[in-house]
Amino acid sequence: MHQIRYFLAVSRTLNFTRAAEECNVSQPSLTRAIQTLEAELGGELFKRERGLTHLTDLGVKMAPLVQQCFDSAVAAKSLANSIKSGAVTPLKLALSSSINITILLPQLTELSRSFAGMELKFFRGAPAEIADSLRKGGADLGVAGPLQGDWERFDHWTLFTESFVLAVNENHRYANRERITIEELKGETIIRRPNCECLEDVEALLRERGLEKLQRHEASSEVDVVGLLSANVGVAFVPSSADLPGKLRRLSVEDAALARPVSVYGVAGRPRSPIATTLLKMLRATDWSAYRA
Question: What angle do CA 187, 238, 101 make, to 5 degrees?
Answer without folding.
Answer: 155
